[in-house]
């Protein structure tokens, strides 16, 4: 049985950047679950750093300064603790375990690998949102730039996979698959990030809502 107590808000940490990070954070702050969750910390990409694998991720494409910092600005506007450094450091572990103390974490376009010390901590799990197609799991489209791979293979759609984070690269246990998102003609990687992110955020909120309901059932049975 879970020891989570539904009388208090669920503590959520968001690891995210760009449009997916922005929409997931917005959904946690303003969507239907806002009364049930508290965002206790946000880790986001420092695009000027060398540790976010910029050359292999969305930051390698033309983008604006606003797109680099919109997650940071949203967190600051809502007075949420923000972290932009390396997450596999004793400094961050101390913040994560002694200040944020998350019940659940979500990764949504984040440029650093998550260590086992981080993904094993939240009682309700640490999850990632990954674009792919429903081609079995782990997907053929695991990796840092799935939209590019999908366009290269002339796919006309994607889905968002919500999966647990583990030591592999997009290999953790599959939780759910979203509905299909169809690609318009001549769509770019940036276009697909923009168009899919609101659906990805609402999909995560829907699945988190199911998880909260299960926790309430477990607590009632104790």
Automatic annotation (TrEMBL):
Residues 70-180 form the Formyl transferase N-terminal domain. Signal peptide: none annotated. Keywords: Transferase. The keyword Transferase applies. The keyword Transferase applies. SUPFAM superfamilies: Formyltransferase. GO terms for molecular function: methionyl-tRNA formyltransferase activity. It comes from the Bacteria. GO terms for cellular component: cytosol. This is Formyltransferase domain-containing protein. It comes from Noviherbaspirillum saxi.
């Amino acid at each position: 049985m879970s020891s989570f107590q539904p009388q208090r808000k669920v503590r959520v940490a968001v690891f995210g950047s760009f449009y997916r990070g922005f929409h997931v954070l917005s959904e946690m702050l303003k969507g239907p679950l806002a009364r049930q969750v508290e965002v206790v910390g946000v880790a986001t990409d420092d695009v000027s750093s060398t540790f976010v694998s910029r050359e292999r991720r969305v930051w390698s494409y033309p983008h604006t300064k606003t797109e680099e910092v919109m997650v940071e600005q949203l967190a600051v506007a809502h007075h949420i603790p923000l972290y932009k450094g390396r997450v596999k450091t004793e400094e961050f572990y101390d913040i994560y375990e002694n200040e944020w103390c998350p019940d659940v974490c979500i990764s949504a376009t984040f440029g650093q690998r998550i260590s086992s010390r981080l993904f094993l901590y939240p009682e309700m799990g640490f999850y990632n949102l990954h674009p792919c197609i429903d081609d079995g799991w782990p997907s053929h489209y695991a990796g840092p730039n799935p939209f590019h791979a999908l366009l290269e293979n002339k796919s006309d759609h994607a889905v968002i996979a919500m999966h647990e984070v583990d030591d592999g690269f997009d290999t953790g246990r599959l939780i759910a698959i979203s509905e299909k998102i169809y690609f318009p003609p001549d769509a770019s990687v940036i276009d697909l990030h923009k168009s899919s992110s609101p659906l990805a955020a609402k999909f995560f909120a829907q699945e988190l809502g199911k998880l909260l309901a299960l926790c309430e059932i477990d607590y009632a049975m104790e």
